[in-house]
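Page 47, continued from p. 46.
Same chain as before, 110 aa.
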Amino acid sequence: MLNDVLGRIGLHQSGTPLDFAKLREPFSSWLQLQVVAQGDFAFLVSLVAAFISEYLINQAGAQRYVAGQQIRLRLPIQSGVASEFDPYATAVGLVRERHSLANFLATVGT
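Result:
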């Protein structure tokens, strides 16, 4: 899904591997420019949640798992200690409040 959507909005060449480090700033900038209709909110949130998940898995060693019916991430903080969170709930807050995805990822991924 990410490969296709990021290609359609001109941020990625479809068919090539996603480079999440390079995409973080452009995707965040694109996201800030969007005026989101109520009917498109859930799709945009799912796109942002997928990006958060894949970015943190690829860049910060996070692990995705399912708890009940929710997809969650476990992000290592230090040896033997991890932070767990719901990327979809995080995406809802980022999209609704128009916060910077790039800033969030830079902060949480360190």
